[in-house]
TrEMBL record:
PANTHER family in UniProt: LIPASE MATURATION FACTOR, LIPASE MATURATION FACTOR 1
Annotated keywords: Endoplasmic reticulum, Membrane, Transmembrane, Transmembrane helix
Species of the source: Oreochromis niloticus
Region (Disordered): 1-46
Pfam families linked to this entry: LMF1, LMF1_C
Assigned protein family: Belongs to the lipase maturation factor family.
Stated name of the protein: Lipase maturation factor
Lineage: Eukaryota, Metazoa, Chordata, Craniata, Vertebrata
Length: 571
């Protein structure tokens, strides 16, 4: 019995030991499985991403900066080529005279009052050679914007400098810089300052991710631009409500291009479709911005396509190109990746950053990079203006033009009229035998045989202002008489703004007059078109009577304009 009991106890002991060993092995196996899962998860985190993920805006920043830089480059190019003639030492409206008048108005000192009234670096420069100052600002602007455009990188210092330089020109540009897109460029350029690190120059500065607040201020800008344009139309000309505005727009817009000629002759139902589409794009589509990522991208794509159509169909300066810029903020890195080369450069760097973010190894952003943007707060008066039945367009609510109202073509002219400058060598302007020869501007309609120009995004400021002058009187646009006096003296400064001087290499005209004509497109396929005529015109009457140098002496003196003298250096 004793032996039997010992055997039984031994057997029980062995089973217990076996049981403990089994439990230990089981625990080890479970522990090993859990550790295996963790190591597998870590491996997945460490694995680099193969495609860009949505929700980041590194590449968006590069595209935005390059786009803003392109517009700046065009704007400074226009300034370099035209500022001397318009606001230079011998320009039509010298900015030196304007600054002196501002100085007198604020008490005769160049201080904070002068800077607040007309913010410009020109206050601090030597006025003895204003042409050199204007050229220097334009060339520096072209150099900096060209650098950002080519390299795709910038810092706050560069973008702030560009903004200050262009601001300095706009604020002394007077009538010649009175277009709505000047303020739009300044607001867009101001937002671009906050896209960048303070000092670092890199396409993908790892410690300075793009601010989501800044991205949203760009989106808010495109919403305001389109709603402003749409509401001013609905509240404005009746033709926007009865869908007939596009029957006139292509022919009567400021500077038509060759496509305008053909689009004007589209069927009536197509013009109705265009007007309805315009209302849809400007009044409905902007709200897609707030309906999630995909609908926001739909808004961006529609707005860009809409602006491309406008670019193709007319010469509206860089306005439509500029309006594309905030639309680009509707796209993130995943949607813009196709614009960048795979496996190298910025795209590769963004993939690495996103991989590090998934692995939880995102570097802390540098202090001071996320500078708050006040555009959204400043938008309150703009929003109130949009909701007002007395909406105004292209207006700034602050001297720095940080936040502005926008709108275009609230009314459509139904007939196109043009002012044509003519000169004659005849001593008697009333002589029926007098030969009157026409001056031709760079781009605006004149010679009926000349094809409409293709110019956008470049901009001839004088040509645009002549469009406005045509439906005003010369008393309302006195600068027209100033031009006439300069033509009488064969002034090379003003003649450089024109395409054709009929008195080149000859004596200057004795008399100059302005004739008023009504213009309309010729019918494609008609006899007039077969003769090479793009336009048909009919005289309305005199815009201003024949004038000569002696007769203008008192007119010029009363306005403190230097009396022109005949120049030997003729164009």
């Amino acid at each position: 019995m004793a032996a039997s009991g010992e055997r039984a106890e031994s057997s029980v002991r062995k089973r217990r030991v076996g049981s403990r060993r089994t439990e230990t092995e089981t625990d080890s196996a479970v522990s090993g499985g859990v550790e295996g899962k963790h190591s597998s998860s870590d491996a997945e985190k460490e694995k680099p991403l193969l495609s860009l993920q949505p929700g980041t805006f590194w590449l968006t920043r590069i595209v935005l900066l390059r786009s803003v830089a392109f517009i700046y480059f065009v704007a400074f190019s226009v300034a370099y080529n035209q500022n001397k003639q318009l606001i230079g030492e011998h320009g039509l409206m010298p900015c030196k005279s304007y600054l002196r008048s501002v100085k007198r108005y604020v008490g005769g000192k160049i201080g904070m009052a002068a800077m607040a009234y007309t913010p410009s670096v020109l206050w601090f420069l030597d006025w003895s050679d204003m042409d050199a100052n204007l050229d220097g600002i334009a060339l520096l602007g072209m150099a900096l914007s060209g650098f950002v455009l080519v390299m795709g990188m910038a810092n706050m210092v560069i973008m702030l400098t560009l903004w200050v330089l262009y601001h300095s020109l706009v604020n002394v540009g007077q009538l010649w810089y009175s277009f709505g897109w000047e303020s739009q460029l300044l607001e867009t350029g101001f937002l671009a300052i906050f896209l960048c690190p303070v000092w670092t120059l890199s396409q993908v500065p790892r410690r300075c991710p793009p601010s989501l607040i800044c991205i949203w201020t760009f989106r808010w800008l495109i919403v305001r631009i389109m709603l402003g344009a749409g509401l001013i139309k609905i509240r404005g000309d009746k033709c926007w409500r009865d869908l007939t505005c596009m029957d006139y727009h292509y022919e009567t817009q400021p500077v038509p291009n060759p496509m305008s000629y053909y689009m004007h002759r589209s069927p009536w139902w197509f013009h109705r479709f265009e007007t309805l589409s315009n209302h849809f794009v400007e009044l409905i589509v902007p709200f897609f911005t707030f309906l999630g990522r995909r609908m926001c991208m739909v808004n961006g794509a529609i707005q860009i396509l809409f602006q491309v159509v406008l670019i193709v169909s007319g010469n509206l300066s860089f306005l439509n190109w500029l309006t594309i810029v905030p639309s680009l903020a509707c796209f993130d890195d995943a949607s813009l990746g196709f614009l960048f080369r795979s496996g190298a450069g910025a795209k590769k760097a963004v993939l690495e950053i996103q991989s590090e973010d998934v692995a939880g190894r995102t570097p802390a952003p540098t202090k001071g990079m996320h500078i708050p943007n006040f555009s959204l707060g400043f938008s309150i008066p703009v929003l109130m203006n949009l909701l007002s039945s007395r909406q105004v367009m292209n207006t700034s609510f602050d001297p720095l033009r940080i936040v502005n109202t926008y709108g275009a073509f609230g009314s459509i002219t139904k007939e196109r009229t043009e002012v044509i400058f003519q000169g004659t060598l005849s001593p008697d302007p009333k002589d029926p035998e007098a030969l009157w020869e026409e001056y031709q501007f760079m781009c605006k309609p004149g010679d009926v045989y000349r094809r409409p120009c293709l110019l956008s995004p470049y901009h001839y400021r004088l040509d645009w202002l002549m469009w406005f002058a045509a439906f005003q009187t010369y008393e309302q646009s006195e600068w027209v008489i100033h031009i006439a006096g300069r033509l009488l003296s064969n002034d090379s400064t003003v003649l450089s703004l024109l395409d054709h001087n009929p008195f080149q290499g000859r004596d200057p005209p004795r008399w100059v007059r302005g004739e008023h004509f009504r213009y309309r497109f010729s019918q494609p396929g008609s006899a007039s078109a077969a003769q090479g005529k793009w336009w048909l015109r009919k005289r309305i009457g005199a815009y201003f009577p024949p004038v000569n140098l002696e007769g203008l002496r008192g007119y010029f003196q009363s306005r403190n304009w230097p009396h022109p003298h005949i120049q030997q250096n003729r164009k």
